[in-house]
User: Fold this.
Amino acid sequence: MEGIKEIYLKSLEKRKNAGFSTGLDDLDIFCKYLEAGNIMTIGGRPSMGKTNFAITLVNHLVNIRKNVLFISLEHSKEQIVQRLVAEKIGTPLFRLLDGNVREEEVEIILNSYKDKSLEIVDKTNLSIEDIETKIQETKPDIVFVDYVQLVEAPKAPNLTEAINLVIKEIKRIAVDNNVIVVLVSQLSRTVEGRINKHPMLSDLRNGSLLEEISDVILFLYRDEYYDSEAENPINEIIIAKNSTGLTGIVSLDFKNGFFRNPAINNTF
Assistant:
């Protein structure tokens, strides 16, 4: 029978080998204890930058030699690759699509992925069984699902119950397959009816169970989304839930469509 000491030492070793990092220095303080079996949820309103934020995390994770599986239920493989390249170059996506980036620069970026482990799956009707099969085939460290409400749900009396079944299964898959799962999630429209537009846990779309099973929940908030003429707009990552650490708010730069570490001279 395994004793308390053995269990504790095993948990320390597991955390030591987890090595999750976002590449965003201030955010890493909150996310560094994520380990296999954990769920991170990234929430935001449409066009708030959820997919691009996930892309930023993917590029960083493959750079630190993590095996990443990116499951896109909304965008094609081609669109995901375009965003990966744009993020790495640091250019707006439209400049890349318009051909306003030097071919040599793009070639260098593309070559940088050759020795990295990144698998992209694009399918609009992916089921839970499909997701688990792909995880077992590719054996990733971290899985991204963009976004969870588009996973093909089993039959249920209503949409909320169907999505709850999906979420429950994703948690099981994370634990059984020893992976971190990052879920991108839409937020409900209720946030639009408030004077204060900062997201709250209750805004998770069809997400009562999503709030419960997520170990870390991040919300994206940008002033410019609501006021394009805002002076000194704030760009925030709100850590609304953190089962292994603190909650709080991290202020970041938002440049060329991607969240970035603040410039050295920025103040918070």
About this structure: The beta strands are 39-44, 68-72, 118-122, 142-146, 180-186, 216-222, 235-242, 248-251, 253-255, 258-260. The chain has a mean pLDDT of 90. The domain at 19-260 is CATH 3.40.50.300 (Rossmann fold). DSSP finds ten helices and ten strands in the chain.
